[in-house]
Amino acid sequence: MKNYTNEPIVVQAIINGTKVTTDKLYPRENPANPSEIVGYGPLNTREETVAAIDAAAAAFPAWAATPLKERIDRMQRAIAKLKAATPELAKLLSREHGKALYDAEGEFAVSIMWMEHACQTAVDILQDKVQEHENGKTITTYDPIGVVSAITPWNYPISLSTIKIAPALLTGNTMILKPSPFAPLAVSKVIELIAEEFPAGVLNMVHGDAEVGVELTTNPKVGKIAFTGGTKTAKSIIKAASDTIKNMTLELGGNDAAIVLDDFDVNDERAMRRMVIANFLTAGQICMIAKRVYVHRSIFDQFVEKYVEAANKWIRVGDPFHPDVTIGAVNNAGQVKFVQSLIDDAKKRGAKVIPLGRVLSPELFDKGYFMQPTLVLGVDYNDPIVVEEQFGPTLPILPFDDDEQAIALANNSIYGLTSSVWGNEEHAIRVARRIEAGTTMINTAAVQGLDVRFPFGGVKQSGIGREYGAEGLLGYVETHVINIPKVGELPYIPE
């Protein structure tokens, strides 16, 4: 496998099985060392995007008619290639993204886990369901939708692309995928590997600016949009797609609450470490990270003390390739500026900001888009750092007085992606049942509690539809009912 740690690479669009070169390129820098260019992505045009959509539309009839076993076999060959390429591609992802190498390797592992699970369960989920009953017989089939436009973000580019690619192609759809310009390189190489195992036009890829995104969401040949990203962008997509009433799966923002009950054991070091990881993995740049923590007032001071101890042990900021580093760089300068603005605003409002962990290389830290994680205390429940999705390495912790208040605080958000409750299991489950979220985890949070066998998605403005689990496959099909009634006269219709 090619070594991606030396010279900058150039990735291209893939249209109808062919790499399409262009002179219009954009650079992707290394967030840990912004003076280093890791590679270049193409700026594709609207015309090239139309060509990709046309190729997918032309490939759809034959691919939809391909037996499921062949689709699964092809996907399994792609998975085998991806496994072999993971060591080098994870390095490339770490360099272009800023996340620690172990974190990049973990993203590939989760991606492969889901792709394998989708292959293993596809037959049972997608086979015809035949029911014989007093009125005759009914056959329920699951038909592919058609052409799928997938638009993916930068924070977990591999997993948030394969989460769409595997079910879309296994169910007989064709696809055009657009990666984020903030992490376009490793995911492009992944898509190249997968596309090689499928007929031309089944899996296409384009890069580019707004005009590319507009075409992917408005073109009448597109039957479904699969988008992961910000809620604001999703609102524009919904409006753009309204003229053709497209099927959609939208996994959007989250401001995920963690509730620490009065019966939580603050001396449980492993649980406290899980909490720290749930707050700061990938420098806090995960949609399902726990972004605001509510702690029962009776244990608040003890919790903060033990939390700081755990954070100072686990958090080590620095070179993503250093074996001791747990948190690398923030992905881009704009995100650093936004997160810092929330911290500065909290300071102006009188909050106490506590730095966490250690910076292993101050010289590198000053060069790159690094932020030392911080704990923020003394903020109001409605301050911006609490109500907005920070998407970075800072965390407000606030007290509550009883379960009713904690539930109200957790639900007081336009978002409802994930949440977590920490404490006695039975008590925690009672509280969890009343939280408005797509997923609630008990005594863990974020990716530590993710299970690809079960559906994932949000409520309220955190999204529409579900990914992972059986629902992750069924989100890419249309349910088709075939009725075969018994021959006979209906008593309520006159002759």
TrEMBL record:
The active site is at residue 251. It holds the Pfam family Aldedh. Transmembrane segments: none annotated. The keyword Oxidoreductase applies. GO terms for molecular function: oxidoreductase activity, acting on the aldehyde or oxo group of donors, NAD or NADP as acceptor. Keywords: Oxidoreductase. InterPro entries: Ald_DH/histidinol_DH (IPR016161), Ald_DH_C (IPR016163), Ald_DH_CS_GLU (IPR029510), Ald_DH_N (IPR016162), Aldehyde_DH_dom (IPR015590). Residues 26-481 form the Aldehyde dehydrogenase domain. Coiled coil: none annotated. Belongs to the aldehyde dehydrogenase family. PANTHER family: ALDEHYDE DEHYDROGENASE-RELATED (PTHR11699). This is Acyl-CoA reductase-like NAD-dependent aldehyde dehydrogenase. It comes from Brevibacillus fulvus.
